[in-house]
Amino acid sequence: MITRSIIALSLIALSTINPASAAAPAGRLNTAECDVPSYRNAWQDEELTGNVKLAVLVDANGNVKDSKIISSSGYVALDKASQRASAGCKFKPASNGSEPVWAQVQYNWVLN
Prior knowledge:
This protein has one domain: 2-Layer Sandwich (TolA/TonB C-terminal domain), CATH 3.30.2420.10. The chain is built from 2 helices and 7 strands, in the order E-E-E-H-E-E-H-E-E. It has helices spanning 41-46, 76-86; strands at residues 6-17, 25-28, 32-33, 50-58, 64-71, 90-91, 101-111. It has a 5-stranded antiparallel β-sheet, with helices on one face. It has a two-stranded antiparallel ribbon with strand order 3-6. A hairpin with a 5-residue loop joins strand 4 and strand 5 (64-71). The protein is elongated and about 45 Å long.
């Protein structure tokens, strides 16, 4: 019997993005910490994998206030789990003052 482990990685693109397009670089954030999202056992049975790229709105305190899916994994469950995990990301505030900024976070869901 082969046992598979699940890896969910978050890659944080530390450049901020233009909120109008949610794709073009506009500035820089210093660093961020994000929790690893939960992967349910049922998803392992279905072998759900994919990459989810999100745009996250970061407030002056470094908290995520909103998120948008830029690129879907193709699975609603993984997309929603990525959004839930991104809500807990903590960024060091950007140097532009009190204006909220958009940043990108990517979650790569792979079976290992």
